[in-house]
Amino acid sequence: MNITRRTAATFAPLAGALTLALAAGIAQPAAASAQPAAAPAAADFACPPVLGVCAYDVDDNLRVLYDDEADIIPPIVRAANYSNDPWCFYNWFGYGGARQELAPGQVADDFGFVVRAARRGPCD
């Protein structure tokens, strides 16, 4: 038996076991396990590569937020924070009413309210 056949015979069963483990969800990259279970990965949210917030409005149109916006029309219903800062989303114009904070890399598929204002930074 030559070295190539011996190597293939040695590693073939290991490759099969690894495939089964990956299919079962046992082996995950370190980055996947570092994210909180409650927040889906931002990579799952359709967005062009930006350093800001990708958001979809009530008409399912994409808009990108880079700066604070006190008056968002039409309102946003879901967003993904691709910036390096937390963002606070409000359901009233002028930063009032119900609010929800998105950490960097966090996605909100449903805020539970329509977003009419947003600003960079944590919610007060």
Give your account of this protein's structure.
With 124 residues, this protein is an alpha+beta fold. Helix content is 22%, strand content 27%. It contains two helices and seven strands, in the order ααβββββββ. The strands form two sheets. A four-stranded antiparallel β-sheet has the order 2-1-3-6, with no helix packed on it. Strands 5-4-7 form a three-stranded antiparallel β-sheet, with no helix packed on it. Strand 1 and strand 2 (62-65) form a beta hairpin.
Tally of alpha and pi helices: 2
Main β-sheet, in a few words? 4 strands, antiparallel
- How much is the average pLDDT? 76
Order of helices and strands: HHEEEEEEE
The helix content is 10-25%
The whole-angstrom Rg is: 21 Å
Strand content: 25-35%
By secondary-structure content and strand pairing, the structural class works out as: alpha+beta
Distance from N terminus to C terminus (CA atoms, Å) equals 70 Å
Strand segment tally: 7
Largest sheet, spatial ordering of strands: 2-1-3-6
What sort of overall outline do the alpha carbons produce when their principal axes are compared? globular
Secondary-structure map:
Blueprint: H1 3-24, H2 30-34, E1 53-57, E2 62-65, E3 76-81, E4 87-92, E5 96-102, E6 107-108, E7 117-120
Antiparallel strand pairs: 1-2, 1-3, 3-6, 4-5, 4-7
Describe what is shown at a glance.
The protein has 124 residues and is α+β, with helices and mostly antiparallel strands.
